[in-house]
Amino acid sequence: MELKESLPAFVERIKKTKDAITNEEMTKTSMIMPFFQMLGYDIFNPLEFIPEFTADVGTKKGEKVDYAIVIDESPLILIECKSCNENLDNHSSQLFRYFGTTLAAKFGILTNGIEYRFFTDLDNENRMDETPFLVVNLLDMKDRDIQELKKFTRDTLDVDMIVDSAEELKYNKIIKDWFAKELDSPSPEFIKYVLGNVYEGTRNQKVIERFTPTIKKALQQFINDTLNSKITSALNSENVANAAQETADDPDNAEPESKINTTDEELEAFWAVKSILYGTIDTSRLAYRDTESYFGILVDDNNRKWVCRVIVESNSKHILISDANKNPVRYDIDTVDDIYNYAKEIKESCKKYIEE
């Protein structure tokens, strides 16, 4: 079975069982070993998938990495495991040590059964990079993640091809993370750089502080306007094509005109929320539904996973944001751009749906 076909069922199983898994051993047995089995490795063959692989560090003997995947009699991939309840941020040091003493190793994987961080030695040979070149969260999968995981399947594993693409993947992620951070909270250095291209006066601290909210808002509006332009163009093209097809199919059977009219302001609101949530969730999971009462923004196109509802009538504009209990909290706005003022609340609203 193709990885793309087997992954959805595997992820559903993870969602259902993760709350019952309380320690590292349970995580390895119930989540990590089945994952590598899905990638095509014989997890019961001690010549290919070796548990407690010895990776002695200097004079310290008996150091063992949780698993080593052996290809052509060489330990090519080292896997360090943690409980699914643990954050991986402070756990790469062990894998770093093991990688440096296992000269045949080309890849290190740090995982808690939900998140998989892939490392190699791009910066210095035989010395594991501090930054992973690929991070895959099974509960927030993207299509490109599946394509990268395919490269690690047993039948298609090509070390040279993975290493060749690893640098681009690594810096692609670093750049996107940096941009998302600057978009959310611009640094003084970034503000100073922008001002250097548009402002003729002295760029002192007072000027930087004065222009920070202006530049932040301008960036968000630019992204919003660009995305809105693209989606409006796509929707218009689709609507024209659909209307032409409906007329050709049945010119005498016109359906009653809908009272729902999705406005440009509502589409702008959708793209504003989408830009706010970039980096919080795979934005391809976001969708909107327009009703006669409100314009709803949802996760997975599911009404039970509503992030916010936007009302942009001529006499009243406000946004309802779902709280922790999915109750609406109202915030009045003057323009769609004011939605950015509630970025924190929108992110918190969305986070509760990420692992559902």
Task: Please give the radius of gyration in angstroms.
Answer: 25 Å
Describe the strand arrangement of the main beta sheet, using strand numbers. 1-2-3-4-5-6
- What is the number of domains? 3
CATH domain class name of the largest domain: Alpha Beta
Mean pLDDT: 86
What name is given to the CATH topology of the largest domain?
tt1808, chain A
If you had to describe this structure to a student in words, what would you say it looks like?
- By secondary structure, the protein is of the alpha+beta class.
- The chain has 3 domains: 3-177, tt1808, chain A; 185-241; 261-356.
- The chain is 43% helix and 19% strand.
- The chain is built from 9 helices and 11 strands.
- The protein has helices spanning 3-17, 24-38, 92-101, 143-150, 159-184, 188-198, 205-249, 264-276, 343-351, and strands spanning 49-54, 64-71, 74-81, 107-111, 115-119, 134-137, 286-290, 295-299, 306-313, 316-322, 328-332.
- It has a 6-stranded mixed sheet with strand order 1-2-3-4-5-6, sandwiched between helices. Strands 7-8-9-10-11 form a 5-stranded antiparallel sheet.
- Helix 1 packs antiparallel against helix 2 (24-38).
- The longest helix has 45 residues, at 205-249.
- Residues 23-127 form the Restriction endonuclease type I HsdR N-terminal domain.
